[in-house]
Amino acid sequence: KHAALVACANQIAELLASAKHHIGTRSVAPGDIAVLLPGNADILQLRTLLQAREVPCVGAGKSNVFSTDWARELQILLYAVLNHSDEGALRAALATRLYGMDFDTLASLRNDPEAWQPYAKTFDDYHRLWQRQGVYVVVQALMQRAGPRLLAAADGERTLTDLRHLGELLQARDDLDGGAEALLSWLASQRSGEDE
To answer: Which of 75, 115, 83 lies closest to 99 in space, CA to CA?
Structure first.
């Protein structure tokens, strides 16, 4: 079984690298290829093999999107959006990989209270956006801001897919209940595995 997965990963990598294969007038791209596998372990193994060959991929495995680090980071960011005047919440949000502020920049802000203002305003803008258009639009804005940096990682496409899925789930829940605080409580319960 492992040999078959290695052969599959090699064939996909060669197919993409050769640029000999086309769909219409364009070369075959990673998103044009689908592989059906019998189990989640096989999906994870093939994903690892493809990433080792620098082939971007996403897998529809059965892992829970709420159990990812990205769900935790999104929760931190959304909390800061709701509490944008709370310096601690804002600092935590800026320090996430999703927001992407490096340690030196974050540390320099500590000594310059005026430097916090643009970040507080950005998160205030996100809050207003959430109120007007919904949480999914905020998640999209965060993804757009972080997208190029996240896509540079081997699992970047998977990360963006997970974030998009989280945004869709949050918006669907928000459409049912309404209320940002209730939505963050629901997200926390989903992340902890609690059933309602």
So the answer is: 75
